[in-house]
Please model this.
Amino acid sequence: MPPHPALPDILVPDLKLVFVGYNPSLPAARTGHYYAGKQNSFYALLYRHGLTPALLTPWEDRTLPKYGIGVTDLCPIPTAQAGMLPLGVLRAGREALREKLLRHQPRLVCFNGLGVYRAYFGQPPAGLRLQSDLIGTSQVFVVPSTSPANNGMMKKREAAFGELARLVGWS
Model:
């Protein structure tokens, strides 16, 4: 048995937006809450761009559906870095993710990082923006990862979250 259980998906029908991460970080797995790393900018970006009316903490992640937002991961296995995941886990994760997204049919699926998009679709995205791909009827968007390992992308991250909020009509 892994040292930390997988995080439960935060998915319900009729969501406007579902964020897809690569896999849980070790802090997220330890706490049982998405984006729980001290330096992860996920919740601050949601708030700054009007996707949530208040600055949430990771311990409030289960409240995201009341704002039309869901969260899941491509792979359930926590690691210090996404590159540590076995290839077989990625393949299994793609199919499981597709089934979840088809079942819940959010309006928009946002891949939280270029790497998670590439792992799912097998190719790099066409930029940090709305993609031409669909998952069922769901549109697909890509933002730079909110992981602190990716902090050199803050300007691009802010711009992408701003565009995402405009697209879903929250700002």
